[in-house]
Amino acid sequence: MAEITVIGSINIDIVALTERYPSHSETLFGNSVKMLCGGKGANQAVACARLGKSVEIIGAIGLDPYGEVIEENFINNQVGTHFLKRVEQESTGCAIITVDASAENTMLVVKGANDSLTEQDIHHAFSQIESSKVLLVQMEIPEETVIRAMIEAKNKGMFILLDPAPAEGVTKQALRYADLITPNLQETKQLTGIEVTSIETAIEAAIYFDQSLGVKNSVIKMAEKGALIYECGTSKFIEAVKVKAVDTVGAGDSYAGALACALADEVDLEQAARFAAIVAAMKVSKLGAQTGLPTIAEVNEYCKENNLNYYGLRTC
Q1: How far is Cα of residue 297 from the mean position of the Cα atoms in its chain?
Q2: Is 253 a known active-site residue?
Q3: Which residues contact 109 (CB under 8 A, 6 or more apart)?
Q4: What is the pLDDT of residues 41-93, one digit of tens each?
Q5: pTM recorded for the entire structure
Q6: Exposed e or buried b for every residue in 267-304, given b needs 16+ CB within 10 A?
Q7: In this structure, are residues 237 and 274 in contact, taking their beta carbons and an 8 Å threshold?
Q8: How far apart, in whole angstroms, are the C-alpha atoms of residue 59 and residue 81?
Q9: Cβ atoms 144, 87 nearer than 8 A
Q10: Is 247 annotated as a binding residue?
Q11: Is 11 one of the annotated binding-site residues?
């Protein structure tokens, strides 16, 4: 059975590259367009698989050509599809993404089949899951489905990693079942009301998560600045790995996937976060939420070339 179970959204991404975003009602000519596999759940599952872990995806796709492309992509990336639901009455989820010259992105998502994943589907899957160490879940599927997955995982003694994204889908109810959350700046503000602009305000937000929302462990992602690690009352800042960003789509998913892999190896949170920072840096330097994800061999080579260390590789 897989070391990591990922539950979440599965989409096809239509990605347009442009110098700048069009204003409201404005027409611009872009540079190029690509069709890529995406969705937060799918991205995180592929990230884990490329980093050498056995992983199962629990999610839903439509019975359409996009669904076929996605399923083939899972198989090619060695992601288990035993619990992949195929929905006849809904199309596969779709994200229309615009990436500008600064590598920032805007995104319009049509959930489609993702909203068809039910509590019954979760119960059926977990009745067959025995030895998975980590559950990785996000908020792009129905809230009741997310919570049911977290309860089932808790009953099996799994470590529950919640990526509380997107900000619009985050609810405080789901937080109480998580062992660790990984909000970005927008999600942190949505949940705490605190605008993180410094290490000090990140610590303030982490304390709020702990004392007001009952989340003892958090990693607050501060984009290109780095991340604030908070664990049972103590905090540490981890700097980002500096790279030239090409595409930030899927950066958070690569980070969450890398964290899940490290936690499955039972390393401490600081070491896990340092590994995740390397993986996320490599991801943003390439185009595509999944095509830009590095393999573990590529991570090792990158670390050797740039004199970087993580828990599984020492270059000094």
Answers
A1: 21
A2: yes
A3: 11, 93, 94, 95, 96, 140
A4: 999 999 999 999 999 999 999 999 999 999 999 999 999 999 999 999 999 99
A5: 0.92
A6: bebebbbbbbbbbbbbbbbebbbbbbbbebeebbebbe
A7: no
A8: 9
A9: no
A10: yes
A11: yes
Give yes or no for a contact between 280 and 258, defined as CB atoms under 8 angstroms apart: yes
To the question of whether residue 59 is assigned a binding role by annotation, the answer is no
* Residue type, position 161, single letter: L
Can you read off the two tokens belonging to residue 93? 């989820």
Q: Which of 115, 253, 265, 268 is catalytic?
A: 253
286 is in an annotated binding site: yes
Q: What DSSP state is assigned to residue 134?
A: E
283 appears as a binding residue in the annotation: yes
Q: Tell me the CA distances in angstroms from 292 to 4, 162, 251, 282, one per residue in order.
A: 21, 22, 9, 8
**Main-chain dihedrals φ then ψ at residue 16, nearest 5 degrees:** -110, 130
Short-list 107, 148, 145, CA closest to 253: 107
Helix axes 251-264, 269-284, angle to 10 degrees: 150
Residues 6+ apart with CB under 8 A from 83: 56, 57, 58, 121, 124, 125, 128
Helices (H), the chain: 40-50, 65-76, 119-126, 143-155, 172-175, 185-192, 199-213, 251-264, 269-284, 296-306
State the amino acid at position 58 in one-letter form.
I
Shortest CA distance to 241 belongs to which of 193, 204, 294?
294
- Binned average pLDDT, 10 residues per bin, the chain of 316 residues: 94 92 89 92 98 98 96 97 96 92 85 96 95 95 95 96 86 89 95 96 97 96 95 94 88 96 96 96 90 95 93 68
Q: What percent of the chain has pLDDT over 90?
A: 80
Query: CA 138 to CA 170: how far, in whole Å?
Result: 9
